[in-house]
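Re: that chain you flagged

S.,

Sorry for the slow reply, it's been a week of failed gels. I finally had a moment to sit down with the sequence you sent. For the record, here it is as I used it:
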Amino acid sequence: MKERLYKIILRNIFVWCCVFFFVSPFYWLITTALKNRVDAFAMPPKWFFIPIFDNFALVFTTGEFMASYYNSLIIAVLSTFVSLIIGLPMAYGLSNRFRVKNCQGILLWILSTKMAPPIMVAIPFYILFRLLYLRDTYIGMVLVYLIFNLSFAVWMIHGFIDGVPKELEEAARVDGSTRIRALFTIVLPLIKGGLSATSIICFITSWNEFLMALVLTSSATKTAPVAITSFISFEGIRWGEIAAAGVLIALPVIIMGIFVRKYLISGMTMGAIK
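Prediction finished late last night. Pasting the structure tokens below so you have them in one place:
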């Protein structure tokens, strides 16, 4: 009995240490955004202080950053939507419903497109987009993030579709349903958790991406991760505004995670359970 109690205590200590490890940076970010410059750099750190919202006010009144924030929302949502629209039929076509020659080889080739580091393709993309007049455009950025997200979306959705017994679709087709109708009425409702998990990860990838946005945008479509560097100038680093902008950048991801957390957990574990 004592041994079991010790295991429970050690397990709880380990869990709370992990929680503290992952939450403390975000806590520091929020508190820095709510402190003035003196309190933010006080040593030892001030754990109790009067919160102020001046840093958030400065960020909201910075037209460049807020325009970039809206650009990030538009680009991330569009790239996620297009990734799912294209990735779903690709994953369905490579599923166990069809006899595709060298299916595993095709899937590995699709996955290999994510193995190249972005820095390796940044300059070729810059040259190509400049020639095609796609640099600093929404279409260009959506295409870039589509390339990054599509392989992941295909692999994720492919695994979820394979986890649904194909006999369900065969039974529906015996009853007169078409293959497309069976996909939308049977398969998609069963993998909605997987689609939610795929969409939020694709959104996070597009939302947080920095290097390609830095190379391929300037003013019209600059994204929030790039615009946050505008708070670094020859006058110094404005840590309060950077922290407030960081909170705003993290906010959409947190909200999405809260609303789809049930589907996210079930989607990430669906393949293992099946």
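What I noticed first: The chain has two domains: 1-52, 54-273.

Talk soon,
D.
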